[in-house]
């Protein structure tokens, strides 16, 4: 019997991989190359579609390095996600000596469903405070590197074995 062909990454496949994300300048944002590989089921929402797209068709042992434009990575900056609020609503934060609020501070808000929504303070004026709710990596090219450790096809039930 001939050797089975290696499984290719496709939607629904269980993939284990090492990866890194870096800015166009080379500054590494996240990496697990010095740790255990990450595992995910392609299409389950745990990875952004632009990153999944460049993995499709790869198999165990392959590596990829791709510079993704902002639109395929964390998206473009959306001006509708930048808001200005009356500073009076933030007086308690601005007066906190232990954790001072300044430009660059992250403030957590609640959305209509009650989930945390972080925003970055971009400006503090006399009567207002500006907060940006875009993802911090929005508008940036991302260098995505990955080394595929294993691929389990979508129609095969994976059994995790711990040694």
Question: Please, could you describe this protein's structure?
Answer:
With 163 residues, the chain is mainly beta. The chain has two domains: 14-74 and 138-152, Roll (Chitinase A, domain 3); 79-132, Thrombin, subunit H (Beta Barrel). Helices cover 7% and strands 36% of the residues. The chain contains two helices and nine strands, in the order E-E-E-H-E-E-H-E-E-E-E. It has helices at 49-55, 91-94; strands spanning 14-23, 28-31, 38-41, 63-68, 82-86, 106-110, 116-124, 128-132, 142-152. The strands form two sheets. Strands 1, 2, 3, 4 and 9 form a five-stranded antiparallel beta sheet that branches. The protein has a four-stranded antiparallel beta sheet with strand order 5-8-7-6, with no helix packed on it. The longest helix has 7 residues, at 49-55. The mean pLDDT is 89.
């Amino acid at each position: 019997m001939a050797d089975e062909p290696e499984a290719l990454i496709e939607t629904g496949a269980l993939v284990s991989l090492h990866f890194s994300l870096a800015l166009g300048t080379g500054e590494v944002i996240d990496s697990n190359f010095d740790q255990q590989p990450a595992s995910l089921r392609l299409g389950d929402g745990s990875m952004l579609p632009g990153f999944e797209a460049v993995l499709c068709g790869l198999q165990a042992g392959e590596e990829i390095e791709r510079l993704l434009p902002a639109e395929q990575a964390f998206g473009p900056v959306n001006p509708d996600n930048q808001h200005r609020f009356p500073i009076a609503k933030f007086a308690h934060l601005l007066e906190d000596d232990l954790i001072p609020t300044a430009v660059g501070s992250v403030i957590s808000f609640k959305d209509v469903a009650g989930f945390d929504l972080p925003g970055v303070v971009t400006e503090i004026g006399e009567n207002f405070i500006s907060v940006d709710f875009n993802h911090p990596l929005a508008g940036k090219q991302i260098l995505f590197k990955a080394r595929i450790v294993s691929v389990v096809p979508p129609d095969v039930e994976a059994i995790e074995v711990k040694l």
